[in-house]
Amino acid sequence: MHGLGNDFVVIDARADAIEMTPNLARAIADRHAGIGCDQLILIGNAPDADVSMQIFNADGSEVEACGNATRCVPLFVGRDVSIRTKAGLLEAKAVDGGVSVDMGAPRFAWDAIPLAYPMDTLTMGASWEDLPAPAAVNVGNPHVIFFLDAWDGVNFERLGPLIETDPLFPARINVNFAQVLDDNHIRLIVWERGAGLTRACGTGACATAVAAIRRKLVRGPVTVSLPGGDLVIDWAPGGTISMTGPATHVFDGEADWSRF
Known about the structure:
Diaminopimelate Epimerase, Chain A, domain 1, 16 strands
């Protein structure tokens, strides 16, 4: 499945539980010797929700949230669902234009991002090279957002991993490079923690829209244009984030996991 080109191997573990390890997730995600994906998703059972969702990046690391994968879950299950994730309980439902997900409330405290030490997260007292001071938001997973006037000359592939692994971010960080196009439109490129440059990142779009609204750069709802397509994000201070966008089923298959 994929959401705007951010692609997933989705495994149904409801009837038969699967013990996923970092090595196995990394082998399945390998685009040459495995099936190939940005993230591996396990759909299981949950005592307090319709299903549970575990998320593994292509490097085998387990992460808390994935907005594009969350939109795929109602399509996978065949109905609107509540989803238990490490980031909390999420609600996803089919709407005109794809799937809408209530992503919960964003967090802004320095230790909720988390950062290594106290700092204002709306305009951080830190930056890298010629980049402007960023904002930081946790939307189930951690994001840092740079608002740029222009992208010309910005080396995303070099800066992404440099910032992702900076000691300021003890849990590593997703890195967002954004351009505000008008009051309701943002262009975005995301270096995803554990996956690299991606065609789309749902949580990155959420974090970027929230940061832009907090800085009064835009008004919601906001269209966030990523290389893979558009998401619509809405949020008001004190509320939860709404994300709406497409989800696509590509193919079904079977595999013997012992072969990976």
